[in-house]
Write a structure and sequence with these properties.
Largest sheet: 5 strands, mixed
Mean pLDDT: 91
Radius of gyration: 20 Å
Number of strands: 7
Length: about 210
């Protein structure tokens, strides 16, 4: 098995080396799919497509190969800070498990430390690890929240995701401008005042 190119220090590292066995098996399956759909896979525009898609899917679903808990643990520090920490506008790209079509948007994540903080980039990386799996937006939201809550043991965690789903825009109801918003909260963020402060802060636009 070849090195996937993923490590805990840089979740966003581009995969340059792929698992040869997985690539071969996926390529054959995609070739069969194209043939069933009536395409000529030997024509110039398609003869490399099964391999390209096989590699693309390994890249898009690379989140299975990384442990998000270890990402947080790799940069945990003792700190007596008990105010809200927010990382907003984290870009997300994920794949809907129902139709294998992308959904994309932004995640806003906050936590209130309880003696332990983590590197700010680690929050974004945790979001990316869970997003780079077959997902539904509701579960993605809760997984991010649970990972941060269970690992850092903060006073509370808040996660809001706003996303557009191509399964709604390209097929089915075909509503091109619809945005789906999901949220999940623990601890202090279940109090109206704290939650309202978080919502206000993530809604503020900075020039």
């Amino acid at each position: 098995m070849c090195n996937s190119g993923i490590n805990h220090s840089n979740v966003y590292e581009r995969i340059e080396v792929f698992d040869e066995e997985v690539t071969e098996e996926l390529s054959q399956n995609y070739k069969n799919i194209l043939q069933v759909l009536g395409e000529d896979v030997s024509r110039e525009g398609l003869n490399k497509t099964p391999e390209r898609v096989a590699k693309a899917m390994q890249f898009l679903l690379q989140g299975y190969k990384t442990d998000p808990v270890e990402i947080l643990r790799s940069a945990m520090f003792k700190e007596d800070y008990r105010q809200m920490v927010i990382v907003k506008d984290i870009e997300i790209y994920s794949m809907c498990e129902h139709h294998l079509l992308p959904f994309f948007g932004k995640a806003h994540v906050a936590y209130i430390p309880n003696g332990t903080i983590t590197g700010l980039s680690k929050i974004a990386r945790v979001v990316d690890v869970f997003a780079r799996r077959l997902q539904v937006q509701e579960r993605l939201t809760s997984q991010i929240k649970d990972c941060i809550q269970d690992t850092l043991k903060p006073l509370g965690v808040a996660v809001v995701i706003e996303a557009q789903h191509l399964c709604m825009q390209m097929r089915g109801i075909q509503k091109q401008h619809s945005i789906t918003t999901t949220s999940d909260f623990t601890g202090a963020f279940q109090k109206d005042a704290t939650r309202d402060e978080f919502i206000k802060l993530i809604s503020t636009k900075f020039s």
